[in-house]
Each structure stands twice: as structure tokens, then as C-alpha cells.
Amino acid sequence: MQDIIDAIKKASFEIQDIIQKGDTSKSDNQNSTGDTQLKLDIQSDVVIEKAFKQISSVKKIVSEEQENIIDINEDGKYLIAYDPLDGSSLVDVNLSVGSIYGIYENDFTGANIIASIYVVFGPRVEMVIANNDGVKMYRVLDGEFKYIQDIKLNEKGKLNAPGSTQQCWYPYHKEMIDRLFNEGYRLRYSGGMVPDLHQILIKGGGLFSYPGTTDLPKGKLRQLFEVFPFAYTYKMAGGQAINGFEDVLNITTEHIHDTSPCFFGSNYEINKVLETYKNHA
Ligand code: F6P
Asked: If you take atom 5 of ligand 1, which residue's CA is the nearest one?
């Protein structure tokens, strides 16, 4: 596993360079969910693929930017799903973006995720590793990732990050979001999953939601590359991650690019979501 962490650190320095100097325009390609890929997405993807191909413990990899799973070493132990540059369309307005990695054993299912790592590229570069030992944050200082702190969510937070197009929200979802605002929660939403979820983790709690909507009943965020890695991180930090009804890590994945509605937060807010959604199964 240390090999994988070292490869991610190395790749992150290269990706940081691509973000700083790269061209933010669109490529001519679309990824399998129909998003037009930016040149930055493709370049970051190439860096990560190259890094993982050199590690003997890696069995298979799959990127949000690619159609299929790539076999690496038949005898390898780990399967890695990654989103090389999540929120890449925010680079041109100079907001934070990130890379997300889910590390799985046996197969790419929520139940088999065993570690997750994300890297935030913002005013600072930070990496958060979640595994059996809990959730730890590192920051680049003097050209190296240095340990900064453990991350633990409070029982209740203060931030509300409601994703997707409000026009397409179901009325009960809107009522739940409004109730939190009426309790004093503050809006914090940049449109980048990595910084938005990182903010809630670092500030102690709150709710990030990306619900099923009238236009996208299964939500937008991809299970393997976005939802499961953050679900694992939130659970290990003492919070919860659900699809509205149950632990999102228990859902079945039929296709590597499947999406799911998702809610990440501390216990108080997630219990509010469960109370609301149980009447709308
Ligand atoms: O998956 C890409 C992404 O940019 C996430 O990083 C982010 O949370 C989400 O989409 C934002 O979507 P929306 O603009 O629909 O709220």
C-alpha cells in the first residue's frame, strides 16, 4: 500500500504542475458519461496511469476518464478506481480542484473498498488518507507531504453544501435543505466535490448532498471514482454516507460508470436525511 501512496504523491506533483501551467481548454473527446474532457483531465489521467502501471501490488485500475478497466498485474492485490482531476472546469476560474482514489480488494464494489485517498489542489496542496487507522491529513511543505492532523467529524456541523440543479429537486429534498438553513446552517458550495467535502471534514461537520433529481434520478456522481471513496473517508472520520435510504457502500454496482444519489455528513444531518427520505422510497 505504501507503494501506492508514494505513486500518488509523485503523480500529484506532476498534476499540480499541469494545473499551474496547462491549457484549460476542451479536448475533442467525451468521457463515458458524456462530459467533454478538458486537456487537463487527459493529461492528469496519463500521469496517474503511468504511475500505477509500475506497481506490482496493483492488479487493475479504472479511471473516470476511460471506458474500461485496465489489467496491470494478475498477482496484484489492489484494484484502484480514480478520478484524475475532479472539478477540472474550475481551474480556469482558479478555484480548488482535486484527485480522488478508491482502493479496493477483489472487485470494484462499495463493500470491498479498503482505503481512500484524495488530494486537494488549492492555495495549498493537501492529501487525505483514510484506512483502518482512521483519517489523516498531509500537506506539501518544503516540497514534501508532511503529516498535519487526524480528521474526526463532530456529531453535528454548521455547513450545508447542496448540489445539483435546484429546479430539478424533489419537493421533499428542498424542504429538508431549507429546514437545515432555517436551523442556522451556512451555505458552502464551490461546485468541486473535493474541496466541498474537504471543507466539511476540516470544519468538523455538516451535509454535502447530491440527490437524485427529476432529470437525473440516479444523481450525477460516480460510485467507484467519487461516491465510494468519500463514503469510506466520511465513515472512517466518524460520520456517515448514504444514498438517502442506506449506507451507500452497501449498494450494488452494475457498471463501472454507475452513479448514485449521495449524502455525506456528520450523524445529526445524515439522520435528518434518513427521516425525510424514508417516506419517499
Ligand atoms: O463530478 C464533477 C463535479 O464537478 C463534482 O466535483 C461536483 O461536486 C459536482 O460535479 C457539481 O455538480 P453541480 O454543478 O451539478 O452541483
From this structure: 193
Place of cell 496517474: 48
For residue range 77-119, list pLDDT tens digits in order: 999 999 999 999 999 999 999 999 999 999 999 999 999 999 9
Pick the closest to residue 193 from 232, 150, 164 (CA basis): 164
Q: Which residue from 268, 193, 202 is spatially nearest to 231, judged by alpha carbons?
A: 193
Contact 94, 69 (CB under 8 A): no
> Long-range pairs for 6-9 at CB < 8 Å and ≥24 separation?
7/51, 7/52, 7/54, 7/55, 8/48, 8/51, 8/99, 8/101, 8/117, 8/119, 8/127, 9/127, 9/145
Distance CA 127, CA 122 (A): 11
| Sheet bearing 206-210, strands edge to edge | 186-187, 159-162, 206-210, 262-265, 240-242
Q: What is the pLDDT of residues 146-160, one digit of tens each?
A: 999 999 999 999 999
Cβ(212)–Cβ(261) below 8 Å: yes
Q: Torsion-angle region of residue 264: left (phi > 0), alpha (psi -120 to 50) or beta?
A: beta
Q: Which of 91, 188, 221, 259 to mutate to test the pocket of ligand 1 (most atoms within 8 A of CB)?
A: 221
Tell me if the pTM is above 0.90. Answer: yes
Point out the residues that are catalytic.
Answer: 35, 41, 64-65, 83, 85-86, 226
What is the distance between the alpha carbons of residues 78 and 113, in angstroms, rounded to a whole number?
Answer: 10
Atom of ligand 1 at shortest distance to CA of 194? 6
Q: Check pocket membership of 191 for ligand 1, CB cut-off 6 A.
A: yes
Distance CA(120)–CA(199), nearest Å, equals: 10
